[in-house]
């Protein structure tokens, strides 16, 4: 965790260049995920908020937003980006041990963060813990590409490992252990986006076998 935090503290001023390299694709998918979450007027938590891009999109939906990140320098940039947005608060904390009560938030987002945490299962578990029953969670993260894209994966993977301490993860498999029901699944070539709803444990178990058949790929 200390190594990851050091990297992000040092490279915070350059973080948004990654969006430029992706030709705006990441920002497009942030907006698409938020649209799927139906956040109008609700309380939202943006995990690994970074420079506050997703938090800004959420704050435009007339609700209240908390952006959380472990990097002080990332949050400094996020505060500049979101200056004047009274419905948005930014806090420094560890995503694996969130300082919130159970079932606090209507919505949780983590766009480009689940692939950088040291404890993916712990982070997802705590995100589900603070999410209200019936609340939605939206995530975007790097994953293993399929087909001919596998040949390019080592190059891209090495870049993100070295620069951002990020790696391919399988959030979908881990999410099956939690009370989450699939709403949308998007294949983004080298990444994946999930929109899920927190349901009762027994409902989750009954639907876990339907994950793949219900998933909508776009």
Tally of extended strands?
Answer: 7
Low-confidence stretches: 211-218
CATH hierarchy: architecture: 3-Layer(aba) Sandwich
Q: In sequence order, what are the helices and strands, one letter per element?
A: HHHEHEHEEHEHHEEHH
Radius of gyration, in angstroms, nearest whole number: 16 Å
Query: Tell me, what's the shape?
Result: globular
Annotated CATH topology: Rossmann fold
Number of domains: 1
User: CATH superfamily name?
Assistant: Vaccinia Virus protein VP39
Give helix % range. Answer: 25-40%
Major sheet: order of its strands?
Answer: 3-2-1-4-5-7-6
What does this structure look like?
The protein is α/β, with parallel strands linked by helices and 218 residues long. It has one domain (2-214): Vaccinia Virus protein VP39 (Rossmann fold, 3-Layer(aba) Sandwich). Helices cover 39% and strands 23% of the residues. Strands 3-2-1-4-5-7-6 form a seven-stranded mixed sheet. Strand 2, helix 5 (72-81) and strand 3 form a beta-alpha-beta unit. The radius of gyration is 16 Å and the shape is globular. The protein starts with a helix and ends with a helix.
């Amino acid at each position: 965790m200390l190594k990851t935090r050091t990297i992000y503290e040092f490279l915070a001023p350059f973080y948004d260049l990654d969006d430029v390299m992706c030709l705006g694709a990441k920002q497009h998918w942030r907006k698409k995920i938020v649209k799927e979450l139906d956040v109008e007027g609700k309380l939202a938590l943006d995990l690994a908020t970074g420079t506050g891009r997703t938090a800004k999109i959420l704050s435009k939906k007339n609700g209240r937003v908390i952006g959380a990140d472990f990097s002080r320098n990332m949050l400094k940039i996020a505060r500049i980006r979101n200056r004047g947005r009274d419905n948005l608060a930014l806090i420094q904390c560890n995503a694996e041990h969130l300082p919130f009560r159970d079932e606090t938030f209507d919505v949780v987002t983590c766009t480009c963060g689940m692939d950088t945490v040291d404890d993916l299962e712990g982070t997802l578990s705590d995100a589900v813990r603070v999410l209200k029953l019936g609340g939605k969670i939206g995530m975007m993260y790097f994953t293993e590409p399929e087909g001919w894209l596998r040949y390019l994966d080592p190059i891209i993977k090495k870049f993100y490992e070295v620069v951002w301490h990020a790696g391919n993860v399988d959030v979908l498999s881990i999410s099956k252990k939690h009370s989450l029901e699939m709403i949308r699944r998007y294949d983004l070539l080298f990444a994946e986006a999930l929109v899920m709803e927190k349901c009762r444990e027994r409902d989750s178990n009954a639907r876990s076998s339907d994950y793949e058949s219900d998933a909508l790929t776009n």
